[in-house]
Amino acid sequence: MLTLSRAQNVLSRTISIDIKNKQLSQVLKSISEQGKFNFSYNSDLIPGDSLVTFSSSSKSLRQTLDALLSGNYQYKETGDYVIIQRPVREKYNYITGQVFDSETGKEADYASVYSKQQFISTLTDESGFFKLRLKDKNFPLTLTISKIGYADTSIVINVPHDSGMKIIIYPKAIDLDPLIVKYSEGGNSWLARLFVSSKLRLQSRNIRKFFVSLPYQVSLTPGLSTHGKLSSQVTNKFSLNIYGGYTAGVNGVELAGLFNISKKNVRYFQAAGVFNSVAGQLKGVQLAGLYNQILDSLQGVQLSGFGNVINKHLKGAQVSGIFNKVSGNINGVQVSGVANIVNGEMHGGQVSGLFNKSLKTMHGFQLSGGLNLANENLSGPQISGIGNISEKETSGLQLAGLFNYARNLKGVQIGVVNLADSSSGYSFGLLNIVKNGKGTISVYGNELLPLNIAWKSGSKKLYNIFTVGSYVGGSRAYSFGFGIGREFKINKNLTLNTEITDQNIYLGTWKNLPVLYRFQTGLNIKLSKSLSLSAGPAFSMFYSEQKEFRSNYQSFSDKGFMRFKMRQNGYAWLGWQGGLSWNYGSIF
Question: Model's pTM, two decimal places?
Answer without folding.
Answer: 0.71
